[in-house]
């Protein structure tokens, strides 16, 4: 995959808004888009309903979140793929972007104001540790 635009998603509306921005940037740059969802727990639960058994895991939740975004972004003239990565969201996103030699990482600005600004945010962490360009999308209107 040639130098994709990478975006991190977690199933939230603000992450989806960032993914839309990332798609538009990928189209403008004629680059593929890689949707990444992180999970930092190896939690797995087994739930039974009647005769059926369901296995629920953090990795599975991350996979489903990424797949939903990929499906919604298809058909705009850009190749959209996804991956999941184990670790804290910012670290996982930066590592995945480095692995694929990303052209750019797109993150939303959720939690970059108020107490989140003091305690840190994914966007802040990514901006300080990425080895490629970082685009911080304004996602406040998606909250």
From TrEMBL:
UspA domain span: 3-136
Domain of life (superkingdom): Bacteria
CDD domains recorded: USP-like
A Pfam family recorded for this sequence: Usp
Family stated for the protein in its record: Belongs to the universal stress protein A family.
UniProt-listed PANTHER family: STRESS RESPONSE PROTEIN NHAX (PTHR46268), UNIVERSAL STRESS PROTEIN UP12 (PTHR46268:SF6)
UniProt-recorded name of the protein: Universal stress protein
The organism of origin for this protein: Arthrobacter burdickii
């Amino acid at each position: 995959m040639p130098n994709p635009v990478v975006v991190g998603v977690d199933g939230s509306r603000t992450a989806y808004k960032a993914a839309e921005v990332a798609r538009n940037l990928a189209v403008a740059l004629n680059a593929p888009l890689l949707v990444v969802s992180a999970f930092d727990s190896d939690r797995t639960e087994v739930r039974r309903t009647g005769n059926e058994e369901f296995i629920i895991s953090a990795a599975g939740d991350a996979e489903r979140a990424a797949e939903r975004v990929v499906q919604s972004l298809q058909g705009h003239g850009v190749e959209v793929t996804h991956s999941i990565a184990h670790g804290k969201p910012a670290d996982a996103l930066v590592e995945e972007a480095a692995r694929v030699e990303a052209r750019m990482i797109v993150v939303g600005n959720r939690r970059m104001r108020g107490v989140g600004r003091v305690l840190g945010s994914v966007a802040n962490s990514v901006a300080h540790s990425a080895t490629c360009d970082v685009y911080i999308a304004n996602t406040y209107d998606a909250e």
